[in-house]
Amino acid sequence: MSLSLRNRSRNALALVVLAASCAQAQSVGTRPDDYVARAKQLIRRVYPGLNGILKPVIIDGNRWREGDRMNFFSIEFLDLGPKDGTGSVPCWCSDPALHVTFIFDWQTENKELMLMSAGGPVADGRRDKFAEEMNRHPEWSDAQVIAALNDAGAKFGPDHKAEFLRTLPFEELKPFVGGEIEVLSAGFHFWESDLEGKTSRAYLSWIVRAKWHGSDGREAGCSLAFEPFDGTLQSYGRGF
How far apart are CA 218 and CA 202, in angstroms? Predict the structure, then answer.
């Protein structure tokens, strides 16, 4: 897609610019089907360090809908502050500092979060920077990667599994996923493989396999991914 088309598409898709990201959270009594308000609450809990200059923009990509309420949408956080000293606002075509996609289960009473996927510098900027260096050294052993991660300031490299497991944000997620999450396994993935099983590029994420126990007695498998520098959540996905 050309840059000009991308710019026009983003401007066309932006439904509303919300209040500053550090505005007061919605009350505890937010309706389960108020998906956007709940998404905003979750972002504040999982990414508390978002810069107040960044503005959230709801992006609708013709996703699934429950009546007139979107249950499948994305929120991007953009720096819309003046850059040239004239007070003019730049276009919304700049890469977002954070992009988060949500899917909520509109068919259940509690409208549980089913999928969340985040990207951008706020979520994985340090990991991506390290991955670029790692991709230039495909000969590195796992031990060399671990040493380099520690030197780079990663708090939760593969040799800090116990510390990582203690930081899992299950309490923060509980009001949104509608139940408890039970860890089944957690493993650190160094490299991503291609379709032939050959190493292709750095991956550098913790993958947590878990079981979701819904408040109504339902159960399902789920998985979560986290980057190793600050243990930031990159994705959550639950089976049907």
Answer: 36
Of 91, 111, 131, the residue that ends a domain is 111
> 11: domain range?
3-111
The answer to whether the beta carbons of residues 170 and 179 sit under 8 Å apart is no
**Per-chain mean pLDDT for the chain:** 82
- Whether 100 and 172 map to the same domain: the answer is no
Domains of the chain: total? 2
pTM listed for this prediction: 0.81
User: Do strands 14-17 and 219-226 pair parallel, antiparallel, or not at all (unpaired)?
Assistant: unpaired
Give the CA dihedral 26, 28, 31, 33, nearest 10 degrees: 70
Same domain, 127 and 229: yes
Q: How confident is the model at residue 49 (pLDDT cuts 50, 70, 90)?
A: confident
Q: Please, are residues 116 and 35 in contact by the beta-carbon 8 Å criterion?
A: no
pLDDT band at 210 (very low <50, low <70, confident <90, very high): very high
Q: Are residues 104 and 146 in the same domain?
A: no
Query: Degrees (nearest 5) of the Cα angle 230, 235, 237?
Result: 145
Contacts of 237 (CB under 8 A, 6+ apart): 114, 115, 116, 117, 222, 223, 224
